[in-house]
């Protein structure tokens, strides 16, 4: 059974990675933050009795389910918005402007040139990951970002290990092609 301090420590440790996963899935900073917060609350409210060792897999599954639920809700909203958009006058729409939320860590310890180069490369990689199909992105992030093994990834995704291998292979090939096109050595 985890203590409140252990739970808080776990949540602090995974918050940035969880945000990145959610952001790649929804491509909206505020929504990604909401999804991560909802997932963290679900873990804290429903599973405080679980051992700390079970938190990584449990939280990953909660986050992935929360993202899927969001996509389902968005699909329904989009359908209704499209149907009723003919009733709206032109020029009444509000547009959200995305703001940068997370600051780059350890930027003070490297030269400006190295920092800029690293930031540009990471931006390119993040954009390429964000452009992957949903299942490929999910498999890639779980396997290589979260460092889950094949069985854990298959369990979280609700598919076979062979499907995880296929999704990961396609994702890495697509990312490698993008990097080569931009002149980055892989």
Plain-language structure description:
The protein is an all-alpha fold and 186 residues long. The chain has seven helices and no strands. Helix 1 packs parallel to helix 3 (55-84) and helix 4 (112-130) packs across helix 7. 21% of the residues are buried.
> Given the helix and strand composition, which structural class is it?
mainly alpha
**Helix percent band:** over 70%
Name the assembly state.
Answer: single chain
| Low-pLDDT sequence parts | 80-90, 92-108
Overall mean pLDDT stands at 81
Largest sheet: none
Please provide a brief summary of the model.
The protein is mostly helical.
List the helices and strands and how they pair.
Blueprint: H1 4-26, H2 29-46, H3 55-84, H4 112-130, H5 134-145, H6 150-157, H7 161-181
Summary tags:
186 residues, mainly alpha, 70% helix, 0% strand, globular
């Amino acid at each position: 059974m985890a203590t409140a301090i252990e739970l808080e420590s776990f949540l602090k440790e995974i918050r940035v990675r969880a945000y990145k996963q959610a952001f790649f899935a929804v491509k909206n900073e505020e929504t990604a933050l909401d999804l991560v917060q909802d997932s963290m609350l679900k873990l804290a409210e429903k599973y405080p009795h679980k051992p700390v060792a079970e938190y990584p897999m449990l939280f990953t599954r909660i986050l992935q389910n929360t993202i899927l639920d969001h996509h389902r809700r968005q699909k329904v909203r989009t359908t209704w918005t499209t149907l009723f958009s003919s009733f709206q006058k032109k020029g009444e729409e509000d547009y959200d402007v995305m703001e940068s939320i997370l600051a780059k860590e350890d930027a003070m310890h490297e030269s400006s040139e190295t920092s800029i180069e690293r930031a540009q490369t990471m931006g390119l990689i993040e954009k390429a990951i964000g452009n992957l199909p949903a299942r490929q992105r999910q498999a890639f992030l779980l396997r290589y970002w979260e460092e889950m093994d094949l069985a854990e990834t298959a369990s979280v995704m609700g598919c076979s290990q062979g499907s995880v291998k296929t999704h990961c292979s396609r994702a890495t090939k697509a990312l490698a092609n993008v990097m080569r096109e931009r002149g980055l050595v892989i």
